[in-house]
Amino acid sequence: MPIIVTSQEVTATPISDRLYGHFIELGYGVQVEPMWSEMFFNRSFEPFTPYKWINKEWYDLWLDPKHPEKGYKTDWSQEDWHHSGYEHNPWFAVPGDEGPLEITDESTFILPRSATLDIEIGLTSEGARHGETCLKVVNGESEAWGGFAQAGKVIQKEAGYKFRGFLKSDTPGAHAEVRIYAQGDWAAPLFTAPVGPIGEEWEEFSCTFHNKVYEGRAVFSLWIAPGATVYTDCFSLMPTNTRHGWRPEVVEAAARINPKVIRWPGGCFASFYNWRDGIGPYDQRKPQPSYFWGGQNANDVGTAELATFAKMLGADSMICVNLHHPTKQFYEVYWNDESKGPHGFDFPHFADPAQGAREAADWVAYCNLPVGAHPMADQRAEHGYPEPFGVRFWEMDNESLRWFTPTAYAEAVAAYSQAMKAVDPSIQIGLITYGEEYKKQIPEMLAIAGAHVDFLADRAWGEAQLLAVLEPMRAYNAACGTTIRYCDTEWLAHQDEPDAFNHVASDAWTGETKSYRFSKWRYAMNIFRNFLMWRRQGGDVLFVNFNNFANTHSQCVIDTPKEGAYLTAAGHVFEMISRAPAAWPLALDGYTVDAKADYQVQAEWDLGRERLVLSIVNMAAEPRSETFDLTPLERVFTNAQLSQLAANSLTTMNTLEHPDMIRRLDSERGSVGVSYSLDIPAYSLTQVILAAE
């Protein structure tokens, strides 16, 4: 029997044109770094902060998640999500070799001695130019040159690369030489450039390498003259063809995703972030540990870089704001287990709520006000960005239940909102509503902060959780005449797998991790059918930010290894679904909605009711055929544009070597009339756009 598409619209407001959002988190296990064009690992020569237990948990690195005392994986290259962008290439003394690329809590990523010559390198805090430490290089040889190097630089034919770095020396008239070698071949360098004479004070040196022929992995090295001692700091090696600092191939892949909103800089990272650390000239930004996750944050990517990235893609920025709280000085209270929470740092500057509100207001001014309207806007212009970034959405912290009770949080949000909207009344403020205690007290929180917020920043894993927040939101709007909307600010597509978020929920751990699931076609198909659920709520749902955008142990829409960039299985879904003009969901006869069913269909008008969108999910192993009766719409359809995504199995995934394991078929048909039939492959997603007369 055909499915009858009725003319009955099931929502009072149209689907949001900002629905398909995304999320980028700084300081989280090499997520942003492979997107950015900087080619050095630890370019500032800083001590490496070990990755914390929570990073190991999210990366599924524990050998036995139920018994962390058994240890963790140190060779990430064995994971199916691994690519070259995750490499932690050490600085090593040359002549020498980088050795195995293991990542342990003891790793310094500094290999201090040459195996063949008297060459020694090491970190020192004596007079560092950038950050807390610099690299001291001692050539103890009387005749031979030696120095230090970093491997793993992937270079392209007909491309240019610029090196720059600061050097000083205790040795009068010291000289050095930049050499770039094909990795594995020390016989003759691809490029050389003299450096010097090097004086007693820090001085910047630079050179540009125009690569004509070689393509592949290369080694950057700096060689020091015999008997010299040289200090180095704040190095950089970048291609000359970046897109505002971003890799061009990354921007191209990201544009295919078509994001409408991008949330940044966190996540958990945002709760310990001072936005001023990520603005201004790169050489004046101080590299820091990633306080929550462990690892490094170079601060090369900050407000201007992320806002510019979003604008290049036509997306709105959503900033997650650090709400100061006294307990943040020492603890990142993790739910109810403080033993997992001490961050090991002293943050008195994050302990004063009033100061935090002033900092947030200044951030708004830096992002949104025109030159001359505020000192922060003038500072933005001094940093090379005269035009405002126009950041619309501001979320009040991340997982605030770590520090705030529901009512105390609502009071803080009201205070922050008033300070921030005094600077720019057009911004929209988000109130967190996830967490058991927060969800119980949504009416009480709205009574305190409702007049000061514009959206609820929630996290729902399925339809029941979504409705539990929509119902009190709608009731408040009806009672108060407000238009607060719902947003899911950090969403994982786990609707059909109740224990997927907690991969150690069962007594017998099977070895199938979150990271394994994230990259597979079944997870990507969940994205599509979950968005059908979001769309059935109409305009009450403003946007849903998929977690994450890039490189997050396959929990992403694009992967960006050094050799290129490609869409994951999830990325292919967003490339297709984000371009659907769906606006008005329609009731269907002959079909009952079940948000967890493996076979689902949905029909929606576009905003002007000129095009009809048909969406079909088939997660089963059997193909099907479907017919839609369009007669009740009283329109004749003249054209059908069909797009289908399919794979050989639910566990199919894309890789750099095989970026199209998820197959896409596009076709067009004319003279549709008032009935439309099509074949539905196994393991497929289908989107049809029908044009009406």
From TrEMBL:
<feature type="domain" description="Alpha-L-arabinofuranosidase 1 catalytic">
    <location>
        <begin position="255"/>
        <end position="438"/>
    </location>
</feature>
<protein>
    <recommendedName>
        <fullName>Alpha-L-arabinofuranosidase 1 catalytic domain-containing protein</fullName>
    </recommendedName>
</protein>
<dbReference type="Pfam" id="PF22848">
    <property type="entry name" value="ASD1_dom"/>
</dbReference>
<dbReference type="InterPro" id="IPR055235">
    <property type="entry name" value="ASD1_cat"/>
</dbReference>
<dbReference type="InterPro" id="IPR017853">
    <property type="entry name" value="GH"/>
</dbReference>
<dbReference type="GO" id="GO:0000272">
    <property type="term" value="P:polysaccharide catabolic process"/>
</dbReference>
